[in-house]
Amino acid sequence: MLSRVANSLYWMSRYLERAENIARIVDVNLQLLLDFRDLDDEALAGHWVPIVQSTGDEKAFFNLHSKATGQTVTRFLVFQTDNPNSIVSSVAQARENARLLAASPGSHRRHRRSQRRLAVHAGRQVSRTRGQNHSHP
Predict the structure, then answer these.
(1) Burial degree of 59 (CB within 10 A; 0-12, 13-18, 19+)
(2) DSSP three-state, residue 85
(3) CA angle centred on 29, ends 28 and 32, rounded to 5°
(4) Residues β-bridged to residue 126
(5) pTM for this structure?
(6) How far is 116 from 132, CA to CA, in rounded Å?
(7) For residue range 36-61, what is the model confidence (pLDDT) as tens digits?
(8) Is 18 helix (H, G, I), strand (E, B) or coil?
(9) How far is CA 106 from the centre of its chain?
(10) From CA 84, how far away is CA 59, in angstroms rounded?
(11) List of residues 6+ apart from 61 with CB closer than 8 A
């Protein structure tokens, strides 16, 4: 059981890290291109193709899109569910691993314990027998 929980935590973290890295790559390129307002579409494409190449998804990108533009690359890297490395796909995979953690044996006990700690921290005491909140002045 512990290895299953550790595995889910590891992959959840990896998927979130991947989403963060893709977001950073897209953001940096968008910020860089703000300085190049005078470039034509062909020159701009030259700035977007390396972004797709750096993610290792060039083949998958060109299977779905005929050319690399700011819109197609951003859609592919951020929103496209056909891309398993997109931000949306990575967050969905992280969420699935989190769901598996929540469904693991003992997670309800950990959840109740966390709720009690939060309630005490907020100035409330949680009844251990009924799980009801009682406010203290």
Answers:
(1) exposed
(2) coil
(3) 85
(4) 133
(5) 0.71
(6) 10
(7) 777 777 777 788 899 999 999 999 99
(8) helix
(9) 26
(10) 13
(11) 52, 68, 72, 73, 76, 83
